[in-house]
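Lecture 7 notes. Example A: sequence first, then its structure tokens.
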Amino acid sequence: MPTYLLTIAYDGARCHGWQLQHNGITIQEELERALAAIDLPGVRVEGAGRTDAGVHAIAQCAHVVLPRPFEPERLLMAMNTHLPPDIAVQAVREVPAGFHARFCARGKRYVYRCRCSRVRPAIGRHLYHWVRREVDLDAMRAAAAHLVGRHDFAAFASNPGRKLVRGTVRTLHHAHLIRRAEGFDFAVQGSGFLYNQVRNMVGSLLEVGYGNRSPDWLREVRDARDRRRGGPTAPAAGLYLLRVLYAPDLSPGPEPGADDDV
């Protein structure tokens, strides 16, 4: 039974996140429905992580174990024929037996997009977070430096009391604030992310950008390990999963398991 790695892009506005649910359409459900439509009923699509409702993906990854071989290009075209316009399989690759999209992931890369304007944008509101005033990006960059490295990120998890197998310690490799013509992006890469971690970091960084807090305040929040000390949770609309990171041989890393909902 061959295993295939799928790379998937989607606009998350319509769906209730990645994972199958009883109360709404999800990305996983749409993918499994497309497989059933090409005579592959009951095939489970296992994602590298679970994006929350309203979160988008440029290159989410998932794997499927099929009862018979498929040419990768044929599988890609067949699935896309039966997927809605806001979900598309970008690539299909056959991988070794035993590969798992989540447990073999070495990390992930996300970007959070903000548009700064005094007037409410009329187009594309579900694709970024509308920030109603200008922010001090230099101060935000200084604050973001306190997030890089291996830390306990409990203060940036929306479910810090939940018992996690891997705890709340993660490694953040990069955290960049990039100025754009109409706003800015917050780009991060790490070994894994807790529930709402990126959105909570953005909400706290904006408090610094508005001048309400100093850059060193973010270090205090981080070390307090108390979600109540941080800023608000930024909306889901601005968050994109950019890439899932794997070793060249697709082997698991020292911190397998990727992350929880983001």
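Example B, a different protein, same format:
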Amino acid sequence: MQQRPFKQVDVFTTTPYRGNPLAVVLDGSGLSTEAMQHFTNWTNLSECTFLLPPTPEGAAAGADYRVRIFCPGRELPFAGHPTLGSCHAWLEAGGVPRGEYVVQECGVGLVRIQRDGERLAFAAPPLIKSGPLDEADVQLIARGLGVARADITAHAWCDNGPNWRGVMLRSAEQVLALRPDATVLAGLDIGVVGPRGKVGVVGPQDAGDTQFEVRAFFPGNNGMAEDPVTGSLNAALAQWLIGAGLAPERYVAAQGTALAREGRVHIERATDDTIWVGGASVTCIDGTVQL
């Protein structure tokens, strides 16, 4: 056991305790996978990360640090809010990137992170699986969400590590009203998005400060759980929606509203077609842990 620097960061918000919390152990050296998993489970948070030096291969390719990402019960190859929260913690602790971007090494390879004022943004990783869902899945999801099949106006695989199935409903209000049935949706990771305002061929118009409402449902220990703000899902949704002409090339999505959070996810497609997924982070706890 030794003292290790630790931060608990709230991601996708500028207001503490209104985003998605993340535990970050800034020095994970010497810890076994079992020890990392045990500590993650103990935090009772959706994710915990452990920062490490990059592998020799990662360092040669430009990585500034390596991160291992855990959720209760398993390790993840990639996740969005842990990527931004870990980078925030690393920079705040004195980390200095070697180049224009911060480069994170993780299970899916190297992920670029850019800085824009108080916001950080990661380059969305390639989708592992895309394209429309099977109709049987769509009908099952509609039943599990408690909506008519006709209320699902579009759907797609949104798999970039986490195995999200994405569906679009008619409006943000309909998304906020959902009360999913855990029995019907057992075993499925579901991302739901709905537009605000009037929808045209380039996405919602006259929608105020956010253009979409997003919710993320997944199986939990006590039935269906909901994630406050989900970077990986928003990255995959953006790749789908922008590519399909269902969203503009730059927009802001709200998530967490149904959980009394105020998550804001900033999406932008650059001229090279990279989709950047960004948000602010704030440190809520700063100290050490015994591990």
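Note on Example B: The chain has two domains: 3-124+279-290, 135-271. The helical segments are 33-43, 56-60, 80-92, 135-145, 172-176, 231-243.
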